[in-house]
Amino acid sequence: MLIISLTIIASLFYVLATSHVLSRLFHRQGPSQKITIILSTVAILAHMLLLVNSVFRADGQDLSIVNVALLTCWVIVLCVTTVSLKFPATLLLPVVYGFAALLTIASLFIPHHVLLHSINVELALVAHISLSLLAYCILIIATLYGVQFYFIDKRLKRKDLAIVHSHLPPLMVVERQLYQLLNLGTVLLSVALITGFVFLDGMFAKEFIHKTILSLVAWAIFATIAVGHVKRGWRGKVVVVSIMIAAFTLTLAYFGSRFIQEVVLNKF
Question: What average pLDDT score do residues 251-262 get?
Fold first, then answer.
């Protein structure tokens, strides 16, 4: 009952925060930061308590794909909300809040019970998982910045006066933040992969090879874009689409097989 209540509270306040931001998306003064922070803070705290109660159970730790997705979503929401305190993130907030609302509600209906009665803590494994999760979150946020960049750029090229007088961030600021996040995420993903190859066995084992290959493909795309931007000034629609493809590939690597096993086939 507690989990259901926390889920409803989190999703409700995420929806309220989304609605508030969207209602003033193109307003000159933008959404009220105070109202946005109040609504999102309640949602984030409820989301955090939901995670704690979903993962840590009396009979073990539930580390199902749904709970991992809830954790990843929570980190992204927290990061974007924190960034919005200093930099305008008017387009990003409704996206992350809206997705968080859908995911929290969906978690009530998706079977997810993968109980671990004991966890063997190995420093190398913890470092690899932590770096992988952090890299993924940063690269997803970079992808959102890429979409925001493309949206603003397209509206400016159409000479849309609404975008000029709105509260949306300047195009050059968005682009600079996009590549800063892309570079940071790519470096972290590189370190995560290196720690995996050096300290972990079985990166190319049958049950893990698809994750390794997809992660390497995503890393190659991200790294190529980062280097291409520095060396040749790559930017624009092709870069944004490439970042989206890389993010989708990395998502498949992290969640694809577990989603099939745990949700579609319901093996656990």
Answer: 76
